[in-house]
Amino acid sequence: MTDLAFTLSKLLWFPARPGHFALILGFIGLFMIWRGRRSGRWLILLSLGFFALLVVTPMNQWLLLPLEDRFPRPAAAPAHVDGIIVLGGAVEQNITEARGIPSLNGAAERMTEGVILARRYPDARLVFTGGQGSFVHGGLTEADVARQLWTGMGVDPTRVIYEDQARNTHENAVNTYRLVQPKPGQVWLLVTSASHMPRSVAVFRAAGFRDIVPWPVNYRTGYTWAAQFDAPFPERLGQFEWGFREWLGLIAYRLMGRTESVLPDRTPAAP
Asked: For labelling alongside 154, which of 111, 119, 147, 187 has CA 20 to 30 A away?
């Protein structure tokens, strides 16, 4: 069942991706007009309208803001931390394999923050979780790239658990819980992108990390005019698609029973 859900999520995302879906509508509309059906112009207008709205409004920000604001970073860093969990999604294993050096993407703050926290809390256990999350991949996992990068940055490899089987956030949580077996009262930080934090917190709580402490990074939103309109169109489209996927993931995880609510509470429920 888990393999089927993973496969369907990858197959269905291609046509459901907003940019792809808008283009598909536009091409269907063109085909209908070519076949003499004037109603196709409405599909073309819908397609162009979506892209036009991305240009003239910050709707990418509107989609991401509720996600990024759900779990702010603690005002004061915990005095003691037992463990730090860094989610994959920031490394490019295929480019790393092709070029021979660790390659990062736009979520690189996950990796740099992991090193910062590891130095701030030298006695904390450090976990990186990430395997292969795509159909087309080479021999390296995300954990392999993380090991190369963090070892090169001076992180002692003996203090890091590299979980290399997870293909999605649900498996990140389940596999990590099985590996570390957190005890009641322990403080575990969860490091991932701010917009990904609601789904991550929800699934980690469901997996058994009831008191996980969100430590968001990689913010992409703001409340100033410059923050909302400065990004070029390709970046706006990417942000909108990321936000759409997160909301879709929140709903899907709830329907699949992987979380206890669509949006997790800001504070964990009492045991």
From this structure: 187
